[in-house]
Amino acid sequence: MKFKNYLLLITAVVMALVLAACGGSGDSSEDAAAGESASGASSEASEEDTELDGSVVIDGSGTVYPLMARLAEEYMTNEQPQVSVEVSRAGTSAGFERFLAEDGTDFNDASRPIKDEELAKAEELGFEPLEMKMALDGLTIVINPENDWAAELTEQEVKDIFLADSGITTWSDVNPEWPDEEITKVGPNENHGTYEFFYENILEEQDIDPNANLQQEYSTLVNLVAEDKNAIGFFGFGYYDSNQDKLEAVDVDFGEGPVEPSLETIAEDGPYANFTRPVFTYLNPDMAKKKAQVYDYAVYVMNHVNEFAGETGFAPIPEEEVQAQLEEIEALN
């Protein structure tokens, strides 16, 4: 009887140990599963937790402004609503002054390439600006809609109208059959890359007529031409394109017949090539490394710039150029 009781006791102990072992294994599996679930949730939350905040500060070209402002609007609306992208338009040269200052802007839009002296200033500040080519623009010569005589001009006639020493003051000086009326010449002032492009590339660094009315605001230039039958002006295609109800574009003859500025003719090797130029934004790479929102916005710009170029008056750049620039930006991260 005692032996039987001893066997029963041994059996009970073994069963208890087995049950304990099974219970422990079950608890361990549940704990592991819970751990995996928590880890998965954490990973998922980490992937989704990409909301950024802070600001991105941009200044520079009035020509590039409509395109950059459109990109900024889309970014803040659809990508990062907590990020404030501030886009100003002091002009290319004035913008570079802000960009190349202590605590300068994150980007500078430019309707001309950065100059050697500006690169030297950036070097003094300890950084090398990253050039981001955004689109192609066609410098457009505009006249009042009531002007029915100068709808076509040769490239040389455009130059002569604006040159200081050409002696051109009236329309009849250009063509004796045209009105003997004084020409009102208008354009952007020296703060703008468009002025510098016109002076350097079209006038070949010859002085512009000192009587030309040079203005800071493009809206002012639009109104000056729209309100004066004898006015002629120059600026980027986008400002003409968005004001076609007020202005007429001059078809320019570069030697093979008049060419109308359009998104199709504005190309580096197209028929309007003599008046075509790339436009840029320049990124301070140090800001992209320090501020996640600046890096993120730079990537967004190059991913979407061709999407909005046409609707803001610019011809898009080739996709391979976009991808090459994206790689440069992504290398900063």
UniProtKB/TrEMBL annotation:
<comment type="subunit">
    <text>The complex is composed of two ATP-binding proteins (PstB), two transmembrane proteins (PstC and PstA) and a solute-binding protein (PstS).</text>
</comment>
<comment type="function">
    <text>Involved in the system for phosphate transport across the cytoplasmic membrane.</text>
</comment>
<feature type="region of interest" description="Disordered">
    <location>
        <begin position="28"/>
        <end position="53"/>
    </location>
</feature>
<dbReference type="Pfam" id="PF12849">
    <property type="entry name" value="PBP_like_2"/>
</dbReference>
<keyword id="KW-0449">Lipoprotein</keyword>
<dbReference type="InterPro" id="IPR024370">
    <property type="entry name" value="PBP_domain"/>
</dbReference>
<keyword id="KW-0732">Signal</keyword>
<feature type="compositionally biased region" description="Low complexity">
    <location>
        <begin position="31"/>
        <end position="44"/>
    </location>
</feature>
<dbReference type="InterPro" id="IPR050811">
    <property type="entry name" value="Phosphate_ABC_transporter"/>
</dbReference>
<keyword id="KW-0813">Transport</keyword>
<keyword id="KW-0472">Membrane</keyword>
<feature type="signal peptide">
    <location>
        <begin position="1"/>
        <end position="20"/>
    </location>
</feature>
<protein>
    <recommendedName>
        <fullName>Phosphate-binding protein</fullName>
    </recommendedName>
</protein>
<comment type="function">
    <text>Part of the ABC transporter complex PstSACB involved in phosphate import.</text>
</comment>
<keyword id="KW-0592">Phosphate transport</keyword>
<comment type="similarity">
    <text>Belongs to the PstS family.</text>
</comment>
<keyword id="KW-0564">Palmitate</keyword>
<keyword id="KW-1003">Cell membrane</keyword>
<dbReference type="InterPro" id="IPR011862">
    <property type="entry name" value="Phos-bd"/>
</dbReference>
<feature type="domain" description="PBP">
    <location>
        <begin position="46"/>
        <end position="287"/>
    </location>
</feature>
